[in-house]
Amino acid sequence: MREKNETAAYLQALKANPIDSSDFILLTTALLKKELGGKVRQEVDEIMTHYLHLEKDKAILAIEKICETHREISENHLLSTTIVEAKKHVTDNPIENQSRRYFETRFATNLFESMEEESPVFYDGMQKLSDLVKELNPGLYDKDIGKGKDDVAITTMEGAKSVVGTIRELGDTTPDFTLKRNAVRRNSPAAYKTKDRLNEPVRGTNEENNVFSQNPGIMKSIHAMPFNERTSEEQNRIVDSYALNPAVKDGYSATKTHVPFVNSVSGTAFSTVTLAGAFIEKHPQDPDLQEHVDNIVLTFVARAVNEGFHSLREIMDVFKEPAVQKVINDHKLELRIKYPPEVLNKSFQEAVQYSTKVCLGRCVKDELQNIHEHTGKPEVSEKGKPHKPPFPTELGIRENKVTGPRVEEALREMAKNNPQQALESAQRFLAWKNYHHRNFNVKGIKELVGELKPKNSLLDSFKKMKDVLQTTKKEEMINTDSTRQDMNKTF
């Protein structure tokens, strides 16, 4: 029974308005996995990989293929129709992408938690990188890493973050290094010249515009966040401060609406690959050189997303540039984002729970709006004066001849051929009656409205769905012994 209700929750969530490509991929994949289980294990893994790299078209194509080739889906009218209809209404907005932002924030956090265990040489590489920063820019090293000490051992993740945290300033304040970085930029116009972030922040420019947030990663301050995942309050984070620059022709973020806009194309990514190239030249015989390069890149990416400086694709698209790849490939090494599969799987499932909860919330909001409209209460204008509802002339009754039973009779006759029209006409009549304070007997009309309204209203079933999601999440917590996955605390 619980599994049926969980499926119902996914189906209802897919009816949310708005729904973006991230919500669609997350919810549909979870639904197909729930219905088909091990039959689609490989396909689900491929969809998750496409999702990570924001290859939304490939992910959606894979979803459609599953629906077409498995009769359990194609011959189930409710499942297939819901998926098809949801796809029709997918709309992306680079300023929103709420569930995608949550996924990336969790992915970055989960990456940090896995690095030490996954790479035995992680801290060895970070120590060598720290020494290289000191050699290239002693003043920067002393300010951000050494903090007054000649030598600092990099033995913690916080230490590793402080090392990669110098990369941006290193690229801007180290002349010889900057020349090398700029050469790579010039040869990558498709990425660097399409940066479409306004140079000046639109938030935090004065006291009235200050924005405070407890949301981590690339979550905007206005986005829902579980209380147990909130961080210390910060002021004017980048993710809340900058806006798109519409003056940039074919701008990066404006043309990639499924990519969360945080800071547009990452300029620091060019500095990161330049530093990785310098690391290779410094340690050409290191037997773990490829792993060190992987860790440098991955630590930078995780920190940038985790601290809200860039979304994943804003960085990864820079790494795809041929001139950027060449910096590493010339040494017969690869520039890649190598991550443990369990990190992707865990982050994807957490995002599914988040998207389900948020989309169900949107559905409830729509339902509440419908209830407000169904009560027949007049709308109020901005000036506080009620709008005058028109009389429903489609009833075929003159205003001066109106009685409750006469209207009910007309509505019931209409409902035989067009129930939806009858419902809307009844609601308009009730609004007209309330506005004019007319004392009609409308008991029968209200009963008819109840008969015509869709059964199993979301408000009637939402609590059950929520309880199902909470039960599911508690079971996952017991199985994984991970309180991080508790997505069901109050937002």
Describe the structure.
With 491 residues, this protein is mainly alpha-helical. Helix content is 62%, strand content 1%.
Provide tags for this entry.
two-stranded antiparallel sheet; single chain; mainly alpha
Strand order of the largest sheet: 1-2
Main beta sheet: strand number and arrangement?
Answer: 2 strands, antiparallel
Structural category: mainly alpha
The average pLDDT value, as a whole number, equals 87
**Total number of helical segments?**
24
Point out poorly predicted stretches: 478-491
Record field, number of beta strands? 2
Order of H and E elements: HHHHHHHHHHHHHEEHHHHHHHHHHH
Q: Gap between N and C termini, in Å? A: 27 Å
How much of the residues is beta strand, in percent?
A: under 5%
Which range best describes the helical content: under 10%, 10-25%, 25-40%, 40-55%, 55-70% or over 70%? 55-70%
Supply the number of structural domains.
Answer: 3
Gyration radius (Cα, Å) is 28 Å
Q: What is the overall silhouette?
A: elongated
Quick synopsis:
Residues 374-397 are annotated as: Disordered. The protein has helices at 2-13, 21-36, 41-52, 56-69, 71-74, 77-88, 98-118, 122-136, 138-146, 157-164, 167-173, 175-186, 189-192, 238-241, 252-255, 268-282, 289-306, 312-319, 322-329, 341-374, 404-417, 419-436, 443-452, 458-480; strands spanning 212-213, 234-235.
List the helices and strands and how they pair.
Layout: H1 2-13, H2 21-36, H3 41-52, H4 56-69, H5 71-74, H6 77-88, H7 98-118, H8 122-136, H9 138-146, H10 157-164, H11 167-173, H12 175-186, H13 189-192, E1 212-213, E2 234-235, H14 238-241, H15 252-255, H16 268-282, H17 289-306, H18 312-319, H19 322-329, H20 341-374, H21 404-417, H22 419-436, H23 443-452, H24 458-480
Antiparallel strand pairs: 1-2
Helix pairs in contact: 1-2, 1-20, 1-24, 2-3, 2-4, 2-20, 3-4, 7-17, 7-20, 8-9, 8-17, 11-12, 11-16, 12-16, 16-17, 16-18, 16-19, 20-24, 21-22, 21-23, 22-23
